[in-house]
Amino acid sequence: MSIDVDHIDALLEAILRCPDPATTIASLRAVGQDDESLAAVIAPIADRIQQMVASDLGAATLLARRFVDIADRLAQPGLAARARIAQAVTLTYGNHFVEAIEVLADATSFATSADDPVLAARSQLARMHAFARLGRLDDAATTGEAALAEFLRCGQPALAARAEANLGVIERMRQRPTRAIERFASAIRAWPAEPIGRAQLQSNLAEALLDADRFSEAEGSFRTALAELEAVGATQAATIVEGNLADLLARQGRLNEALLHFERVRRRYTELEARGDAARLQAEQADAFAQTGLFAEAITEYRSALGQLQLHGMVAEAARARLGLAKSLLRAGRIAEATLALQELPASDDMPPLLRGRAALVRGRHAIALRDFARAEAQFRDAIRLLEERPAEQAIARHGLADALLSLRKRVEAEVEIDQALRSARRWLMRPLEADLLHLRAKALLAGGHEDAAIEALRSATMGIESLRGSLQAERLRSAFTARHASASAELAIALVRRGDEASLREALEVSERVRGRALLDLVARAVDLRDVAAAQSEDPSAAALLREAADAQHQLNALFSRLDREPGDRVGVEWRASVLTLEERLRVIESRLGATHRLGELLVSAPDATTMLATVRPGTALVSYLIADGRLTAIVVLNGRWVGEELGEIDEISERIERWRFAIHRCLGVGGSVGGRAATLDADAHRALREVCRLVFAPLWPHLSHASSLQIVPAGPLHAVPFHALPVSAEPHSEGIDGEPLLARMAVATVPSVGVLVALRARPTTRPTQKVIIGVADDAAPAITFEAETLAFSHPGSTLLLDRDATLAKVREAAGGAGVLHLACHGRFVAESPMRSGLRLADGWLTATDLYSMRLPRSLVILSACDTGRVAVDGGEELHGLLRGFFVAGASGVVLSGWPVHDAATIELMTDLHVRCDVGARSGVDPTISDDRSGVRESSVFSVADALRAATLGLRARRVRIAEWAAFSFVGDVGGGS
Amino acid sequence: MPSTSSEIHGDDERWERLVEAAFHADAGVGVNGSGASFEASFEASFDASFDAADQRRIRRLREILSAMRDAPLDRPPAAVRIAAIASFEHRGTLFQRWILGARRVLMDLVGDDPAVAVAGYRAASLPVRTYRVADSGGDQAFEAFLDIQIEAVSGSATRRRLRGQISVPENSPAAIAAHAIAAGTDAPVTTALVDEDGTFVLDVGGEPLDLFVELIDGERALIVRSI
């Protein structure tokens, strides 16, 4: 007979009320009912007790004990077995495992007496749980196997599937992921049509696949489980699975996808009012940000998570998050805030050893930042002791210790630590750490006066960094990685410049290019995420398949390396190393196969070699490449095959002088277009400030450059704010004087983010549309914009004009796709706090640098006739962020842009002249400035955009004397490139 | 027993009380009150009768106070400021704070209408704000400009770098120091020396601040509110 739920609850009530089994039996027995019938009626109580353990263990335990008494009094072996199974479950839940095993042995005996093999097998299954909880995994597996065999023999596929699932869990615990995968897969096949359990099994399978480093399949399983749980509305379980999926994606470096899932999970937790879980997840999200070098974002998330973690008493999670916060603050150079975060960590005794070790590691780094090397030494020694079981992190601590020892002039001790850490780094294939250690060894060698050996060590370090970089996908990941390891390359370049011979200078130029805007170079050369590239290769399926394979290999490598931070050393062993080596080899093979086809070879971008770089520089054009290392600015100059290296000065002083110049030019703006009086004073101040900049960054180079016909400059760091074309240079060819005419009067000048970008620009198709697209969005402050746009459109019949209300984001985006020349006259802004939000104001909103990533320009010349369009923020690894980046990524071949807010009336004069000169030059191929007496421009037979801008600027200077008005615009691109 | 004028003159403490009483009397009478009621109120609050010299001093005090109440307290007319300083500076340290206040000169933002400030530029705002003060109350006309640029410090959500440059007439005393002070107080947050070009740099947090630029002769201190 069957009984309904309410009936069972009534039975439970009766059992709970009465401690005496005889009395209870009497109250339960219906008139004339025998023991066997009563046993059948009350048997479902056993299942109900098992269901109760999660919600009310105390009541379940009491009920189970009384139920066993009742079953024994009724002397029904089947009931006795079921009651004992229920009791064992309560005991296991209460962590009384030994007692549970004993109770289950009795249960099996009773079930056998009752001739109920299925019940006996269920008892075995419950026993397996208790063995597992005791860590007796072999016993658990044996018991589980026996239960499984019995279920199969008795034709119980659903129970057999449950046994398989449990055995899968045991196999995971035995670190046999392959066996676990087989078990879970088998269980899923036999699982009844019960979606939640099936989805949970999929999630278990995914975790086993993760254990086996089968990341793609794990992702597939997580996604299946998530879809199934969402389909049946099991929100809480779905949330847990999606959190695991987000974590997996973050480990693979697929940050954008990971963040999407993190955000969804956070929202779900918030909806479920599980704010503690939401905060825990937020901290994991912050970890993902920090791993990819997005420290500002990580700091924000950690801070937000910390409040909730503390509020919910999640002490360990809060400590972990605070440590992550301190680490990110240190990485971001926010030392004072890092100090506070470290002070707020719990006392050491209140933290587990692993966290204590990690805290010591961060405190060591903090002490180094404060130049307290003795304290750093002590902290790192502590970290090494506490991280005994984490060889990867221990090696990192040894690197820190060696760094501190070197600063304490304990060179021999430092070298011992470096050697020891190098052994670990090589064993665990920690290539970034290996490169850092080689960098440190070079410092030690330099300290010992072994310059050649130091250069060799730096060469090894930089090659290691370069080879690893190729395995990282995602723009921000690559740039963060390059930035973190840039100093070794920069120091090598400086050491080579000091040698001074041509071979060393060539190598120095190559090395400096390896750490200069590499992520931008990838984007300009279209080496974006390989999955995206593969998706775009519809016409070449075999290439698409190779690219997908390469992307998978990249993701798997990232995930494998992430295990070094997460698991004890003994979990990351020989198999792990073999997997890494296999994947690296696979990447190399794919790269070589892709490289065999001309077009796809461009996808995996290397920094150019010196020969390729020189091939982009035309005869008569001088190349000046700046680099910063060890706090000093250095320049390499190449002109007509002659190489020169110059050390220029302290970058801090230069940076301050450039800031003064920026301030001086900004001061000039406050007086509008007026002349004389205060305007003249401010203009003189600006000239004086620029002369100081020139004295520091350019005058020493001038004697090597004065015979050049044009100048291609690769700035570094703060030099991106220098208007090189306006620098005052001496009329004397060999003088470093700084009182002459602007450089522009002597030659055309263009800057470029890196020589690699120049090479990539040259490699693009040489043809582009002839269509001009002119955009103008005016307002009361800048009414001349309308006139400028209409004038340009009138002068260029057939051009596309989008004016004011017509210049919407959508229309501009569409029109730009066919623009050979794209002219944007509008308001512009640079957002220092978030440079990629810098933008151009159109009719219905701002066209930001980020928006430009999804635009495609057909190798267009872009003219940004707006304020501040050339300002950039320079991140580590010389990555430039601002409109310039956006337009190059979109496909521009060159960009005319402004260094500061531009005067409306002066701009229209410059722009109309520039377009005329570009048109004439493009038609004739000859510089149109030859006959322009006012400009004083020297004759030139080859036309370029830089030439046209030079002539237009000099023309403007003849009419408007204030530097703020005539010098605002410069050209970024190929100095010899035509329009 | 009523106080005598000599007692008032001879005692810094009493003199301070006199000033205080003048403030109160002035506040009670109001700006349009008659001179007689002011003096009566003053005399009553001080419980004293004054001789002719004292009467002159009191009248002077009253003029100063009225003028300061008419104008914003931060920026009394130059004549009033000079008269006040002359009246009090020989009294020693007791009035330093008062004198300091009297010497403060509030600078005005040039083009405080944002639409006017950006007119002629293709920008929503300009990076530098210019403040001006013109003061003709001293021995010679004084006109100063102060340019300020505030930018976020890279990597910090709250820190700001304030770069300033003060321009004073050629023969005027130069600026020597710039202080960021907590808004509405005298509490300095950070200080920087002003170089020979008149420039200075202050790194400050996100809190509301006033800027205070000291000139070398101590005659004036230039104030910019709510930078």
Write a structural description.
The complex is a heterodimer of chains A (979) and B (227). Chain A is of the alpha/beta class and 979 residues long. Helix content of chain A is 63%, strand content 8%. A 6-stranded mixed sheet of chain A has the order 7-6-8-12-15-16, with helices on both faces. The model of chain A is unreliable at 598-603 and 926-941 (pLDDT under 50). Chain B has helices spanning 5-10, 12-29, 35-46, 52-70, 78-88, 96-103, 114-117; strands at 104-106, 108-109, 128-135, 142-152, 160-167, 175-182, 188-193, 199-204, 209-215, 221-224. Chain B is α+β, with helices and mostly antiparallel strands and 227 residues long. Chain B has 7 helices and 10 strands. In chain B, strand 4 (142-152) and strand 5 (160-167) form a beta hairpin. In chain B, helix 2 (12-29) crosses helix 3, helix 2 packs across helix 4 and helix 4 (52-70) packs across helix 5 (78-88). Mean pLDDT of chain B is 70; it is low at 1-11 and 29-35. The interface between A and B is large, with 41 and 30 residues.
Instruction: Please count the helical segments of chain B.
Output: 7
Shape, principal axes of CA atoms of chain B = elongated
Helix content of chain A: 55-70%
Largest sheet of chain B: 5 strands, mixed
List segments of chain B where confidence is low: pLDDT < 50 over at least 5 consecutive residues: 1-11, 29-35
Give the total of beta strands of chain A: 16
Record field, number of beta strands of chain B: 10
Strand content of chain B: 25-35%
The largest sheet of chain B has its strands arranged as 1-10-9-6-7
Overall mean pLDDT of chain A stands at 85
Q: Please tell me how large the radius of gyration of chain B is.
A: 21 Å
Low-confidence residue ranges of chain A: 598-603, 926-941
Largest sheet of chain A: 6 strands, mixed
One letter per element, helices H and strands E, the order of chain B comes to HHHHHHEEHEEEEEEEE
Q: How far is the N terminus from the C terminus of chain B?
A: 52 Å
* Estimated helix fraction of chain B: 25-40%
